[in-house]
Amino acid sequence: MAEAGQERRRILWGAGTPRTLRAHWILRELDLAYESRPIGPRTGETQTSEFTAINPSQKIPVLQDGDLTLSESAAIVSYVAEAYGGERGLIPSAPKERARYYQWCFFAMMELDADTTYVIRRHEDLKHLYGEAPNAAKAAREIFGKQALVVEKTLAAAGPYILGERFTGADILLTTCLASALRRQIEIPETLQEYLARIAPRQAYQRALEANQPRK
Ligand SMILES: N[C@@H](CCC(=O)N[C@@H](CS)C(=O)NCC(=O)O)C(=O)O
User: Fold this and answer.
1) Which domains are seen in the chain, by residue range?
2) Is 123 near ligand 1, meaning CB less than 6 Å away?
3) Which of 55, 104, 131, 180 is spaced 20 to 30 A from 158 at the CA atom?
4) pLDDT digits (tens, 9 = 90+) for 156-187
């Protein structure tokens, strides 16, 4: 646990993407104060020397928490949940439950984000930058559909959240992936639409959506 009551400077870099939303969301879930630097992708703001010194991969989100500088949205969600979550159980502590938590985090990041939704984004919406690749995008849609069925089965067997009774950081990752899929017109099963509808009213999610608005 982080030192109780000790003020530390917390800065979150990035806004405007599902990946940055994850970081805003976990901070809001725990009502943690932070300064937002809402830099956006493909604006040149991730390429400045100031930001490159913070994250050499020139990507958002990045969380600075005191002397810790952390990139990777899933790592940020898990770190904040562990460091500041106390009894909230946003990340399980028992080894087997923790392992299951990581399973779903990695599943979301690989199967539903990098390997599928982001392939579609790259080669459809951003084809002017990354090239058109209809076969790759079509295959990514099919893979997403197949993997979504795994999530559906798990939720049907033991919901309402991906680890069962308790909402965790893995639900933050999963929700943002499924919501991005819907925006790309990827069909998702009804059980998953119900899951999204269940999570949507969370105050922290709504506040994070506001905080994640790109700078005008
Ligand atoms: N695996 C990383 C991916 C981060 C990532 O690719 N971020 C994109 C925006 S969604 C970015 O910063 N791109 C740099 C740019 O376009 O300037 C994560 O989940 O945090």
Assistant:
1) 10-88+205-211 (3.40.30.10), 95-202 (1.20.1050.10)
2) no
3) 180
4) 999 899 999 999 999 999 999 999 999 988 98
